[in-house]
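B., you asked whether I could sanity-check this one before it goes into the benchmark set. Here's the sequence:
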Amino acid sequence: MKIVILNKPYDVLSQFRKDEAHMTMSDFVDDPSLRLAGRLDMDSEGLVFLTDHGGLNQYITNPANKKFKTYVVQVEGDFTEEALEQLRKGVELKDGITLPAKANKIEQPEWLWDRDPPVRFRASVPTSWVEIQICEGRNRQVRRMTAAVGFPTLRLIRTRIGAIDLVQLQLQPGETKEIEPLLYPDFQNIPAEEPYRSRSYVKKPGGTGGKPMVRKKKDGTVKKSGTKRIWQMDDSEKPKRRTNGTTRPNAKAPRGRGRGRG
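And here's what the prediction gave me:
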């Protein structure tokens, strides 16, 4: 498994497909074997994974795996303790209440790099910084959470996923670094990447998630359920035509064959 860390700059699309208006991942990484795991919105910055393992994205975004993602967020206004408590309890959004977050008010980080373009400065409106940790992966979740408690996000930087720390790696915007997965406990329990399955196994409501059902016979051997298609059967398995005993062989010559012209 190969994992590359990228510090995604502001105004960069989380995709490899070229775009006329914006830079993309392909402007920073030239490796066709890598795919994006843990995307960031165009107006967000910071840590993203690039990997050749197809299941990594689902693994790190599944709340059951408790892979907390850490964000340093600049908000409009002076973030209050009441707002922090709301984040810690869960915030009601349009797609449901969020899981409890870890949230603390912080000073502006010393390591902070300049953003291009910078956040618009307004002398009449103060700003503050908060560190938020979540283990979910909803669309624009952190921005919606801060807005829901009354403090719109002005700048958002993802600094950590699990034990991977962008600040410790000292990556500047646009820089990449390949890491050794075995050195990090976050990647030790990732399930093996499953091989491609045919579209004949389509996931259905209440089904088996795209896998063929397997049942055991009385003797312990495995038997796959479902009916074989006719082209999957041996000659001995193909159904026989039932007749009433009066069917006669077709004695007529095939049309177009064996017939002379008058």
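One thing to flag: The chain has a mean pLDDT of 81. Otherwise nothing jumped out at me.
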